[in-house]
C-alpha cells in the first residue's frame, strides 16, 4: 500500500535534514582536522627552528608562520637542516592551507550553509509562534472542495 503524500513528504524532509546535519558534522570534523594539522605544523616548525637554528621558541614561531604563509620576509636558514625544514614546512603548509580553502569552498558551493541557515530561520519562526493552530490536511493535501 502506498503511503499518503503528506507522510511521504515529511519522511523525505526528515531524511534531507538528517543528511544536511551529517554533512555539517563532517564539515566541522574536517575543520577540526585542519586546525589540528596547522597547530602540529606550527609547533613542530617552531621547535625545529629553535633546535636547528638555535633561535628562541618565539622567533621560531614567527619564522614558521613566515614560511608557511610563504611571505619570505625572514632571511633563509644558515645550514642544510634549516633549509630542509623550510622546504618541508612550505610543502605541508601550502598543502594544508589549500585543503582548508577547498573544504570551505565546498561547504559554500554545495549549499550546506544556505540549508543550515534556512532550517535555523524556519525553526526560529516556529518558536516565535504563539496561540496558533495548525490545520493538517487543508489545501493541496486535503480533500478537494472543502473550505
Describe this structure in words.
The protein has 147 residues and is mainly α. The protein has a domain at 17-108: Helix Hairpins (Orthogonal Bundle), CATH 1.10.287.70. Helices cover 73% and strands 0% of the residues. It contains 4 helices and no strands. The radius of gyration is 27 Å and the shape is rod-shaped. The model has no long low-confidence stretch (mean pLDDT 82).
Spell out the helices and strands N to C. Answer: HHHH
Number of helices: 4
Mean pLDDT: 82
CATH topology of the domain at 17-108: Helix Hairpins
Annotated CATH architecture of the domain at 17-108: Orthogonal Bundle
Helix percent reads over 70%
What sort of overall outline do the alpha carbons produce when their principal axes are compared? rod-shaped
What integer value in Å does the Rg equal? 27 Å
> Could you say which structural class the secondary elements and strand pairing correspond to?
mainly alpha
Low-confidence stretches: none
Distance between the termini: 28 Å
* CATH top level class name of the domain at 17-108: Mainly Alpha
Question: How many distinct beta strands?
Answer: 0
Largest sheet: none
Beta-strand content estimate:
under 5%
Give a quick summary of the entry.
With 147 residues, this protein is mainly α. The protein has helices at residues 5-53, 57-68, 80-109, 112-128.
Structure characteristics:
single chain; mainly alpha; Helix Hairpins; 147 residues
Amino acid at each position: 500500500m502506498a503511503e499518503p503524500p503528506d507522510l511521504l513528504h515529511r519522511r523525505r524532509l526528515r531524511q534531507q535534514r538528517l543528511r544536511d546535519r551529517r554533512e555539517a558534522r563532517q564539515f566541522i570534523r574536517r575543520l577540526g582536522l585542519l586546525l589540528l594539522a596547522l597547530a602540529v605544523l606550527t609547533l613542530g616548525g617552531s621547535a625545529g627552528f629553535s633546535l636547528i637554528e638555535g633561535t628562541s621558541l618565539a622567533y621560531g614561531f614567527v619564522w614558521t608562520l613566515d614560511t608557511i604563509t610563504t611571505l619570505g620576509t625572514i632571511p633563509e636558514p644558515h645550514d642544510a637542516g634549516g633549509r630542509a625544514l623550510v622546504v618541508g614546512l612550505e610543502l605541508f603548509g601550502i598543502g594544508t592551507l589549500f585543503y582548508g580553502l577547498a573544504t570551505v569552498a565546498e561547504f559554500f558551493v554545495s549549499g550546506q550553509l544556505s540549508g543550515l541557515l534556512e532550517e535555523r530561520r524556519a525553526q526560529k519562526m516556529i518558536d516565535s509562534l504563539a496561540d496558533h493552530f495548525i490545520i493538517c490536511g487543508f489545501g493541496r493535501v486535503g480533500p478537494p472542495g472543502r473550505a
